[in-house]
Amino acid sequence: MTTNVTQVQFSYKNNSLIVELNHVITRFIIDLYHNGDFDALEQFGISKSTAKELSGLSISNHHRLTKCQQLLGNVFVDEKRLKRLMQYIIHNENKDSFINQLIKMQASQSMLERLAGVDHHDFRQRRNLLDLPKAAAGRPAVLSDKEAIGLAEAWQRHADKEHDLLQRYFYVGMDTGIPLSRLWNHMQLSGYDCTT
Questions:
Q1: What CA–CA distance (Å, rounded) separates 129 from 82?
Q2: pLDDT tens digits for 48-74?
Q3: In 3D, which of 194, 196, 185 has the Cα closest to residue 107?
Q4: pTM of the entire structure?
Q5: Which residue ranges of the chain lie beneath pLDDT 70?
Q6: Residue 125 — φ and ψ, nearest 5°?
């Protein structure tokens, strides 16, 4: 099995980058040793005795070691993994921003828990970070006949978003101006299965 790992050859004009990397490498080895993670040390190519010796260095000798002109080890970067992790983080950031927008549009915790897995703690924490007042207790007000007709029309207009109910609620809420908690409550009372 071959791996797509690229060894990066460093050519530094600034010695401070070597010092920084050396410091990270030595801290990592010392932390592994102190945590008793000898299998990880072995995978890292360091014997238990070398790790023990490194962790026993005085502060001044450790400082001298990290300031050497040579990098203490090779650095490998798995570009595919790096890209996957970046995409995952960006996706989650976008998802977090979208959920926060739904909360600003007065989505209820029960709606977000059912459609996005947002628990009570996360919901309260997000409301606090968004500097929103405490969510109102009790059932939201029932829609008027005019609002119900507007909801039905907007729901049909956004039928193309049926595969993503959160987006559909977002667009329907934007179109109607009705708080999402009231839209959700109406759909629940109407017997609509909001998870399919």
A1: 29
A2: 999 999 999 999 998 888 888 788 887
A3: 185
A4: 0.57
A5: 1-14, 162, 192-196
A6: -60, -45
Distance of CA 22 to the CA centre of its chain: 29
Task: Look at residues 82, 62, 81 and name the one whose alpha carbon lies nearest to residue 72.
Answer: 62
Q: What is the distance between the alpha carbons of residues 2 and 9, in angstroms, rounded to a whole number?
A: 20
- Model pLDDT for residues 70-96, shown as the tens digit of each residue: 888 877 888 988 888 888 888 788 888
DSSP run (H or E) holding 75: strand 75-77
Cα(first)–Cα(last) distance of the chain, in Å? 41
CA separation for the pair 75, 50 (Å, rounded): 19
CA atoms of 119 and 125, how far apart (whole Å): 10
